[in-house]
Design brief:
about 0% strand; single chain; about 240 residues; mainly alpha
Length: about 240
């Protein structure tokens, strides 16, 4: 994803999630009491984004003491934990998320996931030598492929011509290319115990503003959405052949 698009992409994510919850309320699938925890989680994400940006601007992520502690494995997990802790602890929260997916429509969720085609921005920067070539190609290209397939899946779901097993497989793919794929790859290219990739530019730029919004906010939200869709489809196992 191009770094210039990241702040706008994050805003798009927040607006989409808030409107999705609101849609579930309007259709009667979600009461205000059940919607409230979802709004709280969205609000926490809104607070975390500027905090992450501030830390990046102050150089906190690129301090040697931080880089040596494999930040690709834990800094990137903050939004995931914000979303997944309540999901894991509360059956009501899980049911509420499924209600939101049902209200919005799986085809719209997949079309939204298709925004990951914006990974093409990072690929172009990699080709120009302005961005880590390993991140651009080994992470950016698979992410671009996922985004394109998600757009196609969204269209086919709208046409009611796509089996849910393919939606499940696609979201598993979208998840694993980032976790553990991207998380491990980032740590291979920054100073630390796993540092084996020595390229120019290096991967430290992933933790500088505005690029840091990708691994610490935008991408984790997309990956968590993959997880939500996987759970939704699995909960409808009876619909699978």
């Amino acid at each position: 994803m191009g770094d210039s698009t990241l702040p706008f992409l994050f805003v798009t994510q927040i607006v989409f999630m808030a409107l999705a919850v609101r849609s579930a309320q309007r259709t009667g699938r979600l009461s205000l009491d059940r919607a409230r925890p979802l709004y709280v989680v969205i609000a926490v994400l809104v607070l975390w984004a500027p905090i992450s940006a501030y830390l990046a601007l102050k150089g906190a992520y690129t301090q040697p003491a931080v880089l040596e502690r494999l930040p690709g494995l834990w800094v990137t997990m903050v939004p995931v934990l914000v979303l997944m802790v309540p999901w894991g602890l509360s059956a009501d929260f899980r049911d509420s998320v499924n209600s939101v997916v049902e209200a919005v429509g799986l085809h719209k969720i997949m079309l939204f996931e298709g925004l990951r085609v914006l990974a093409i921005g990072g690929i172009i920067k990699g080709l120009k030598g302005e961005f880590s070539p390993e991140i651009a190609f080994y992470l950016g290209i698979p992410d671009l492929v996922f985004g394109a397939l998600a757009l196609l899946a969204g269209y086919l779901l709208y046409q009611k011509s796509l089996d849910l097993k393919w939606v499940l497989a696609l979201n598993v793919y979208g998840f694993v290319i980032i976790v553990p794929g991207g998380s491990v790859l980032m740590n291979l290219g920054i100073p630390g115990p796993w540092h084996i990739i020595h390229s120019t530019p290096d991967m430290v730029s992933m933790f500088e503003y505005p690029m840091t919004l990708a691994p610490t906010v935008v991408v984790p939200i997309f990956v968590t959405l993959n997880g939500f869709v996987i759970n939704y489809v699995m909960s409808r196992k009876s619909a699978l052949p």
